[in-house]
Amino acid sequence: MKYLGNKVGNGLALGKVYIINTKIPKIEKKTLITDDEITKEKESLKVILNEVVKDYEKLEKEASEDEIRQLCNFYKILLNSNSLITSMEEVIDKEKCDRNEAITKVMKRKADELSLVDNAYLKMRSKDIEDVTNKLLRKSLGINEIDLSKLKEDTILVAEEIPPSILLSSNLGYVKGIVSELGGKTSHVAILASTLGIPSVFGIKEISKTLTDGELIYVNGNEGYIENNLTNTKINEIKDKIKKEELLKASLEEMKDKPSLTKDNKPLLITANAGELSELDKLLEVNSDGIGLFRTEFLFLNRSVAPDEEYLFNIYKTFAEKFKEKPLIIRTLDIGGDKKCPYLDIKEEQNPFLGYRAIRYCLDNKEFFKVSLRAMLRASHYGNVMIMYPMISSLEEIYKASEILDEAKRELASKNIPFNKNIKVGIMVEVPSTAIISDMLIDEVDFFSIGTNDLIQYTVAVDRLNPTVSNLYSFYNPGVIRLIKKTIDSCLDKKEKFVGMCGEMAADPLAIILLVGLGLQEFSVNASMVLKVKKLISLIDSKEAKEIANKVLTLKTAKEIETYLEVCAKKIYGKYY
Amino acid sequence: MVKKDVVVKSVSGLHARPGSNLVELALTFESNIKLIHNGSSINAKEILEVMMGNINCGDKLTVEAEGVDEQKALDSICEYIEKGDE
Question: For position A200, which CATH number holds?
């Protein structure tokens, strides 16, 4: 039986279910009578806090991943807090209760306070506090911690909610997968699982009650489902798939220093998507051909005032200098009513994805827009910076944006501030009307970047996060493919111009064959996918891919296209697919 | 008591790692260290207070230090907050 959930990623796994229950049993309340009892209780509380701090210190030292070290460090500092200990002691003094009660009360208060602050990050952190509370209580009650280092065979952890602390252990060798009922793609556990590369699927309702301990299940973190009651044929098929994936993984390291070429040596650009400062090291490590999509939203969110030019310039410059002559495509702000930004005048809307967002807002707020544009222009003096406008739906918008950009250029020139006067400017092609008139738009810009996530949503009219209709969202929808072909064709024989794609489709093994065949020149994918895409492309012959693409254009349904590409992929990728 | 005004440079504000690091730094001094943010006073040695202060990039803070090593504490804390992510 197949159960669908949210894909957290990190590959495929096969293993036996281990249901984790970290709930604390109901604790009997104890009332203290004598002063002596109270003093002793407070002393024992300190001992427990101290021991847990030591546990975290040990985990921090043993951790091989930075992410985990940081979390242990946070827990350690949290428990070392003077006010935390004082508050717990006060509770014992006042209520004459035992240490468990004091721990529960004070920690709950702290978690509640955190979850009240209007900040997604802090809300997530309040979960961490629950996790620490449970660890304190287990220590206090003498309940053993779940020891994953004792596992002897491939295991899939299953829980209502996986506490992040479970993943802090340095002995996770047999933990092959993670499945949970709660938790999204951006939860702390999801981030840790990705750091550790453990295939995970979250958000499957009731799954910890549905599965039984010890049964064999298959976890597909890439597509977001799990499967149980596996037949022998199916098990062998899965094992084969996992083996091929491992083979592919093992072949990636050597791709780092190789140029991005198809099998018949046609050069392509394989760039990365970026949107966090902390990703910079990872981005440099995979040695991509540049940044195909630099999302700037993170610089604008979680702030009380708009960022100033100097600040944006410094960050863009840091990236530009690191990537040198490689393209750094910076996308101007792509924000709408779905994201709160207190200093932007965007009201909450019924349908923010069809509303006042991205370039629409920026064109109306010229001075605000120019701050970003000037920062990008100034950074262009230090590297190969290109500017990209999101959500373009008409030629007028391009004209208007160019006018504002010219104004920004004149302002800098009048102050003798250096910038690249021939800076390349492009647009995202993510609105169907833009794809349809792409042949008219190409004369006004230097490049296109097809944003498939939105292009598919807008073309098929489907919200891919809505599970009842998300099956309509498909890379292989023939209407979507025609729009992609139209966009690529508009650009193909234009000198000095190029067409790329940013969006999950550019990393899909089946779609890659089609896209190479259609003549796509740049593939911008997540940093973790760069080497994989480079490897897959190195196995594709562009002339063969062109024939495949021609055949795909004659097929009438998404299913037919997918099935056909699946056959082609098996042949082309061979032992890697 | 010594004090100084600073602007937060770190992209993630004083949440996550920058917040933890600030508290660890504050703990190395004997002086009491306060961050005055939007009129409220935050103890720089208490991670939860720092986090709940919801201090974001671009925010203005007044750092106050009082104690035997107050000048050194003030200088280090201000330098850290102004340094940002680099």
Answer: 3.50.30.10
Catalytic one among B2, B15, B59, B78? B15
Task: Please indicate, yes or no, whether residues A41 and A135 belong to a single structural domain of this protein.
Answer: yes
pLDDT score for B13: 79
What's the structural domain count of chain B? 1
- Round to whole Å and give the CA distance between A41 and A94: 13
Residue window 72-101, chain A: list those with CB within 8 Å of chain B: 73-74, 77-78, 80-84
Using alpha carbons, list the distances in angstroms from residue A577 to A240, A517, A541, A571: 9, 19, 16, 9
Considering the domain boundaries, does residue A313 fall inside one?
yes
Give the Cα separation of A417 and A414 in Å (integer).
Answer: 8
Distance of CA A31 to the CA centre of its chain: 49
Give the sheet arrangement for strand B2-7, strand by strand. Answer: B2-7, B60-66, B32-37, B40-43
pLDDT number for residue A116: 81
Q: What share of chain A is helix, strand, coil (3-state, %, to 5)?
A: 55, 15, 30
Q: Among A93, A122, A141, identify where a domain stops.
A: A141
- B15 given a catalytic annotation: yes
DSSP character at residue A555: -
| CA distance linking residue A218 with residue A232, whole number of Å | 13
**pLDDT score recorded for residue A31:** 87
| Residue A148: predicted pLDDT | 85
Provide the domain count of chain A: 3
Judge if pTM exceeds 0.95: no
Tokens of A287: 């040695």
Name the residue range of residue A66's domain: 35-141
| CATH code, domain carrying A526 | 3.20.20.60
The upper half-sphere exposure of residue A526, i.e. CA atoms within 13 Å in the direction of its Cβ, equals: 10
Burial class (CB in 10 A: 0-12, 13-18, 19+), A433: exposed
Which residues from chain A sit within 8 angstroms of residue B56, using beta carbons? 302-304
Check whether residue A108 and residue A221 sit in a common domain. Answer: no
Q: Which residues pair with A498 in a beta bridge?
A: A447
Contacts of A309 (CB under 8 A, 6+ apart): A371, A374, A375, A378
> Closest to A78 (Cβ–Cβ): which among B45, B47, B57?
B47
Tokens of A528: 């973790």
Residue (of A516, A566, A574) closest to A541 by Cα position: A516
A489-517 residue pLDDT tens: 999 989 999 999 998 899 999 999 999 99
A117 vs B: CB within 8 A? yes
- The predicted complex's ipTM stands at 0.88
Angle at A392 between CA A391 and CA A393, to 5 degrees: 110
CB-based contact A72:A135 (threshold 8 Å) = no
Kindly provide the b/e burial profile for residues A242-258, where b requires at least 16 CB atoms within 10 angstroms of the residue's own CB.
bebbeebeeeeeebeee
Domain-located, residue A28: no
- Counting as low any pLDDT under 50, the low residues of chain A are none
Instruction: Give the whole-angstrom CA distance, residue A365 versus residue B2.
Output: 42
What is the distance between the alpha carbons of residues A329 and A222, in angstroms, rounded to a whole number?
A: 27
